[in-house]
Design goal:
The chain is of the alpha/beta class and about 675 residues long. The protein folds into four domains: about 5-90, Ubiquitin-like (UB roll) (Roll), CATH 3.10.20.740; about 110-270, Alpha-Beta Plaits, CATH 3.30.70.20; about 290-345 and about 485-620, Rossmann fold (3-Layer(aba) Sandwich); about 355-480, 3-Layer(aba) Sandwich (Dimethylsulfoxide Reductase, domain 2), CATH 3.40.228.10. The protein is built from 21 helices and 28 strands. The strands form eight sheets. The chain has a seven-stranded mixed β-sheet. A five-stranded mixed β-sheet has the order 2-1-5-3-4, with helices on both faces.
Length: about 675
């Protein structure tokens, strides 16, 4: 490790460190525009100039590796003058848009012009103008503001794996463009807004809506997939205006998927803001007293064995705990959180977790996908797998399932279970690659488990994992990738059929007389016969509400404190940013009120007591934001039944942008379907 001196401070830094990293390790602030920790070095803004002893002129610190005995000066008169000159050049053509620019108040160029620039300009010539580019319905462009830092170009090429941007022309005529005018097709395109150090790229749906200092900022957890991305909810008054990612290197690094970022306008539309009752075949508005009385009347007169409950994909753990306790008090064993009927065995936690952990992907050198498209089901996780491929030239990937562009090379091994069974042969070419890998992993998706032969598909995958060395004392390479934020929490709480209970399939088609849908909108509503009485508790007038006899308005994830468990088993807390609209209430409080009216009050009256009950039900809820790798067990006990069919694996989503009640209500997501997805589908045809 070389020893360097930074402004008189001696320190030792790792091999390969740049001068900029060494300076920051010494506590020195280095201004920059093009440099970003998670992108390759560009070295084209020159704002990070420093002096190095024995070098004749200032050096761009981002691209200069450290050397033994190097003496670095970050704040000499020459350095200050050089930075002023660089800033002066950057501002030659930059327009005076600050009063109307959405980047105002959080603009790197503003901040660094104040901190490192001159107090006047010597240029009075006309500024150049650049035609704005069309990047789709999500990203707004004002390319006259662009300083050609190329962060957006590098992000899409390196992290997202969709190299749709680049530079044309040279010198003063250089422009960042997408060559062919069309919407950006990456599911991570919104991150270039965060990366842009000026106002060239901003959020189109957020244009001219608010200033950053007007917003109330609330830390929370994303629920549009099962990764548990850490987010910040920016709100003003009673409205969510913006959602941004928070840095968490163990989960999402600093990226956020487009649906999670932009579907927020669905929170304002098709909302359930007061109770409804179906009278004489028509749904009519009701008071809370009327609605709760109707619920209690139905529950009191129902056979416990004919009462069932299904939890949806966006539910918080608190509401599932309360509903499970309510049904248990009524004597009903019929409850399930697996809307798609996935064959997930809750007996052992390793059977339904991403056991390698998200951070563990950084150690893998081979991956097998089974019935999953991580690019659509977990875009942030897919970006991490892609980064691993970039870092390790020996990394290999194979897929059994519907063909897909994962943004990195992979071998498509087949689309059905026959291709999966073929991997049990030690002589199979890809099986040899898995065996030769030091830390291989297998990722199985929900669509593979939701088939009629899902349990056997699971067993085949366990056998492949065992035979290829994925299950060892220090490495658990068998992973289940969920796409529902509520799924792992529900399994941890035991929101599954109890002894003698019915699953989702058993509760449909007349399996129960009374069905409580807790935000469950993804089941086949046509499979619920007219004689089944349906109570729907949720926040949107979606599929479940359309079938319901009683509608109880609940709160969306931005409107309540909630606990969510991500696909790797990490317990995380979301906070309330705004209050629910109208008469809507937090879901667990509605269930608690019903239990009181039934004369079977649940043993908790506040959130603290409810979370203590959750920790009692499963100790993992007592240790939030922690995850540990489980040692593999029971791999040798699984067996493959003869019911495996060769039906092809199908994609989890018809389209990435509309997968839940919130995104289906979002006008922005509807634009993405028409302006991004539809042209891509037409081109494929």
């Amino acid at each position: 490790m070389p020893k360097v001196t930074v402004d008189g401070i001696e320190l030792e830094v790792p091999n390969g460190f740049s001068v900029l990293q060494a300076a920051e390790a010494a506590g020195k602030e280095i201004p920059r525009f093009c440099y970003h920790e998670r992108l390759s070095i560009a070295g084209n803004c020159r704002m990070c100039l420093v002096e190095i002893e024995k070098m004749p002129k200032p050096v761009a610190s981002c691209g200069q590796p450290v050397g033994e005995g190097m003496v670095i000066f970050t704040d000499t008169e020459k350095v200050r003058q050089s930075r002023r000159n660089v800033m002066e050049f950057l501002l030659i053509n930059h327009p005076l848009d600050c009063p109307i620019c959405d980047q105002g108040g959080e603009c790197d160029l503003q901040d660094e012009a104040m901190g490192y620039g001159r107090d006047h300009t010597r240029y009075h010539e006309n500024k150049r103008a650049v035609t704005d580019k069309y990047f789709g319905p999500l990203v707004k462009t004002v390319m006259t503001r662009c300083i050609q830092c190329t962060r957006c170009v590098r992000f899409l090429a390196e992290v997202a794996g969709v190299p749709e941007l680049g530079g044309t022309s040279r010198g003063e005529n250089l422009e960042i463009t997408n060559y062919v005018e069309r919407g950006l097709s990456s599911e991570l395109s919104g991150n270039i807004i965060d990366l842009c150090p000026v106002g060239a790229l901003t959020a189109k749906p957020y244009a001219f809506v608010a200033r950053t200092w007007e917003l109330r900022k609330t830390d929370s957890i994303d629920v549009f997939d099962a990764i548990g991305t850490n987010i910040r909810i920016d709100s003003r008054g009673g409205e969510v205006l913006r959602i941004l990612p928070r840095i968490n290197d163990a989960v999402n690094e600093e990226w956020l998927a487009d649906k999670s970022r932009f579907a927020l306008d669905g929170l304002k539309r098709k909302r359930l803001d007061h109770p409804w009752l179906r009278r004489n075949g028509k749904v009519q508005a009701a008071t809370w007293n009327e609605a709760l009385a109707a619920v209690v009347a139905r529950l009191n007169g129902a056979d416990p064995a004919r009462i069932g409950a299904i939890a949806g994909n966006l539910c918080d753990a608190e509401s599932m705990m309360a509903l499970k306790d309510l049904l248990t008090s009524l004597g009903s064993p019929n409850l399930d959180c697996r809307q798609d009927g996935a064959a997930l065995d809750p007996a052992q936690r390793e059977n339904y977790l991403f056991n390698t952990t998200i951070e563990g992907i950084d150690e893998a050198d081979a991956v097998l996908f089974v019935g999953v498209n991580p690019r659509h089901e977990a875009p942030v996780l897919n970006a991490r797998i892609r980064r691993r491929w970039v870092e390790d030239t020996g990394f290999v990937a194979g897929m059994v399932g519907a063909p897909a562009d994962l943004t990195y090379p992979h071998t498509h091994l087949g689309s059905d279970a026959a291709a999966l069974r073929a991997l049990l042969d030690p002589g199979h070419e890809f099986t040899k690659q898995l065996v030769a890998a030091k830390k291989p992993l297998l990722i199985i998706g929900q669509q593979a488990l939701a088939r009629a032969d899902g349990a056997s598909i699971f067993a085949i995958c366990r056998q492949i994992a065992q035979a290829s060395g994925m299950l060892t004392a220090d490495w658990h390479g068998f992973n289940v990738l969920h796409n529902a934020a509520a799924r792992v929490g529900g399994l941890d709480l035991g929101f599954v059929p109890q002894a003698g209970g019915k699953s989702v399939a058993g509760m449909l088609n007349g399996g129960v007389d009374l069905l409580w849908l807790l935000g469950a909108d993804e089941i086949d509503m046509s499979a619920i016969p007219p004689e089944t009485f349906v109570i729907y508790q949720g926040h949107h007038g979606d599929r479940g509400a359309a079938r319901a006899d009683i509608i109880l308005p609940g709160a969306a994830y931005t409107e309540k404190p909630g606990t969510y468990v991500n696909t790797e088993g990490r317990v995380q807390y979301g906070q309330r940013a705004i209050f629910p609209p109208g008469e809507a209430r937090e879901d667990w409080t509605i269930i608690r009120a019903v239990s009181g009216l039934l004369g079977k009050p649940l043993p908790y009256d506040d959130l603290t007591a409810l979370r203590a009950r959750m920790a009692e039900a499963n100790p993992v809820f007592a240790t939030p934001d922690t995850v540990r790798r489980l040692a593999p067990t029971g791999a040798e006990t699984v067996s493959v039944d003869s019911d495996v069919t060769d039906a092809p694996f199908t994609p989890a989503f018809a389209n990435y942008y509309q997968t839940d009640p919130i995104s289906r209500a979002s006008p922005t997501m509807a634009k993405c379907v028409s302006e991004i997805l539809a042209p891509l589908q037409q081109a494929a045809e």
